[in-house]
Amino acid sequence: MSSTEPLRPARTRYAPSPTGRTHLGNLRTALFSWLLARRTGGQFILRIEDTDRNRFVPEAQAELMDSLRWLGITWDEGPDVGGAFAPYVQSQNREAYAAVAEQLVKAGAAYYCDCTPERLEVVRKLQQSRGQPPRYDNHCRDRALEAGPDRVIRLKMPEDGVTAVPDLVRHEVRFENRLIGDPVLLKSDGYPTYHLAVVVDDHRMQISHVLRAEEWLPSTPIHIHLYEALGWTHPVWAHLPLVTDFERRKIKKRDSGQGDEEYAEYVEMARVSTLREKGFLPGAVMNFLAFLGWHPSTTQEIFDPEGLIEAFSLDRLSDSPGVFDVDRLMWFNQQHLRRLSASQLATLALPSLSAAYPDSARLDDKAWLEKLIASVRDELITVTDVSERARFAFHDPVEMSPEALEHLGTPKAYLALKELRESLPAEDTISPEAAEALFKGLRERLKSNQGLNGKQIMQPIRAALTGVTGGAHLTDIVVLIGADACRRRIDQALHHNI
Ligand code: GLU
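# glutamic acid complex -> structure
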């Protein structure tokens, strides 16, 4: 490990706010935090930051935990498993944050403020008209207000100078204090703001490394002053560049107004629930995510989770945005699929096959199913593609695509199909060796007797047996469907020759 790496086990956390559906950008933060904890033999903590009651979505926590579990990101402490620093849900610890805020008031580092939303709006408009950046004007700082209804607690920030944020990705980022108004720590509803809760909990839970999205960087000077005011040591920060779309914008869920369907579909692909439904492998998604903002020291691209843990290092985090490239995600999935055995793939594909072909008794034949999967595996991008790719094995009579029809109905097609029909064995079962021999003989005869080339032979046969123009090897197809189905399908196709 390099010098920026912790020598001792890291305690990291993922601290999502349950405000909506989890997407890959959020999970990338979870993944890197998890990898660091596992790499160093430390602990990974899940903490729910649900203090923004206006944006709270009740189902979000379960969905988020489900997404993490699906990806294989396990936590050592959290709302469901508990731990020495419970509670791990911030709304359950309100008194503790309030006590810290009050303690800061007593120490003179914070104060009560009774500014109404209306007053704050007037201040904001005035600043806007003067071309000044918006900030609280510290109106109540020296008013020595007591606690009371509708009062918030604000932290006293330095009014001049610069706060330097040490960051593992960006090294040092400097913020001018005069641009930051005194931030709210405790809201009038008794809930802490993000600033107060995150600092209290990262300290309380002994977090050593905070990895979080870059959008939180401007909050970090506030956190630094809060740590100082409380006399606590702050953790190491690494602010991760955003995961963006192709135009380098933060991926947003936009209104699916006219013309935006494609974008909406693209955004949908960044949701774990969608990827799961579409048959992506968790290991492939993890591998893809790891490369969004990190790279290993070698050119190796395909990693299983253990390999990622082994290779992970903070000094290879990138400082430029990671683009969410669906083609690349599909490529990773394809690579991971190819590494699975036919038996593993069969187990994964069975649910979608059973849903697509509920009446097929052949799905119970494990050996047949594995052969089927092996015949289409190289064409698969996701597991659910199996149903489409393997359609030839279930649909009898086949449904002819317009492209397949183009290969039928000619004298040459007729010759090829006739020859195949006559070469088929009387019994239904065809062994792989028999299938090889059958096609070899057929090609030789049609070539020397009729002058047909490979394409002229194989295209109509494929069209007749599968109804489409691409897919598995013909030898695999005849083995899988058997001679009787071949005969029926050839007869069906020969009707197109009339
Ligand atoms: N609750 C914040 C979020 O939803 C966490 C930010 C942090 O990690 O400090 O992203």
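# post-check
The pocket of glutamic acid is lined by residues 15-17, 49, 198, 212, 216 (CB under 6 Å).
The chain has four domains: 90-240, 256-338, 342-393, 402-497.
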